[in-house]
Design a protein that fits this description.
single chain, about 120 residues, mainly alpha, two-stranded antiparallel ribbon, 5 helices, about 45% helix
C-alpha cells in the first residue's frame, strides 16, 4: 500500500508528495545535505548495511583521517569515500573508511560546498 500524499515540508509549498519534499525542493535540500532520500534511508537501515558497517568497524576501529594526521582517535561511523550519489559502490570495502564525527562533518561540508 503506497504512502498517503501530504504537502511538501518546504514552508509555503502546496505540492503534494509521498516523500518529505516535492521534486522541486528535494534536490535543493539534498544539495545542502539536510536530508537523505527514502532510498538512502532504506539502505542505511538495512540489515546488510548494519552487518557490513559492524564488520568494517571491528577491522578498522580508528578514524582514518586522524591516523593520516598522526592522531589516535576512535571512529564513530563508516563513510563511503566516494559517495553513493556520485556513483561510489556502496558495498565495496575499498570504498569504506571509519571516521570520527568531526572528520565526517568536515568531509560532508566539503562535499556540499563542491555541489
Amino acid at each position: 500500500m503506497p504512502k498517503p500524499m501530504r504537502t511538501c515540508n518546504t514552508p509555503g509549498c502546496p505540492a503534494l508528495t509521498r516523500e518529505p519534499y516535492c521534486p522541486d525542493h528535494r534536490k535543493e535540500v539534498q544539495r545542502r545535505g539536510d536530508t537523505k532520500t527514502d532510498e538512502e534511508r532504506r539502505f542505511y537501515g538495512s540489515a546488510r548495511w548494519q552487518k557490513t558497517r559492524a564488520r568494517h568497524r571491528r577491522l578498522h576501529p580508528l578514524c582514518a583521517e586522524c591516523e593520516r594526521q598522526g592522531y589516535v582517535k576512535a571512529g564513530d561511523m563508516v563513510d563511503h569515500i566516494v559517495p553513493m550519489r556520485e556513483g561510489g559502490d556502496p558495498w565495496d570495502p575499498v570504498n569504506h573508511e571509519t571516521l570520527c564525527n568531526t572528520h565526517h562533518q568536515v568531509k560532508r561540508a566539503r562535499e556540499r560546498h563542491a555541489a
